[in-house]
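User: My instructor asked us to take a sequence, write out its structure as tokens, and then describe one feature of it. I'm not sure where to start. Here is the sequence I was given:
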Amino acid sequence: MKVKICGITTEAAAEQAVQSGADFIGFVFADSKRRIDKEGAKRIAKGIPNQVKKVGVFVNEQASTINAIAAEVGLDYVQLHGDESPEFCKQINYPLIKAFQITSKEDLLNLADYRCDYYLLDSPAGKYRGGNGETFNWDLVKNIPGVDGKVILAGGLHAGNIQLAVTEVNPAGVDVSSGVETDGAKDHKKITAFINEAKKGDRHGNISATE
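Assistant: Let's start with the prediction itself. The structure tokens for your sequence are:
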């Protein structure tokens, strides 16, 4: 089970995520209370080992800006969390995670139009795109044809419900931000607890750890 800890803004939180077994570290470059500038992300990225992939989250940003930031920070993936079209996605020079807000089965029809490395399925947007701490109806995203091994589940996940989410949806990975925070800041104990719970199945051989 791949685990992405998103909204990282400090070196200490990144180090805790890495030590606890995170597979992806997410930096938010869009409007958010967790927003980070490229200088801050670059500083943190230097301490992240190569096996942990660095993801930049963007919302309706220009492709040239995305590619420039990705190059400067040293990102491994770009995550698009806005209204980007399939044609826009082709302009991104990095492995791609495309986020979709799921409110009904009809929302899943859009996935077929996109060619990306992962499809991140999230709850509907609140004030910001993502990171709102709300789950959605997981029944909607069971057994999606054509995306085996490419689904990342997000939205309202935390250590208390992650095992149920994994059992219900069987995604390739999970994404968390507010679910590992206390009073708006990354909580090191919650980061470790979440990753341990998410990867429980790996230790029992029930869930593939391959991409």
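For the description part of your assignment, you could build on this observation: The helical segments are 11-20, 38-45, 63-73, 86-89, 162-169, 188-198, 200-203. Try explaining in your own words what that tells you about the chain.
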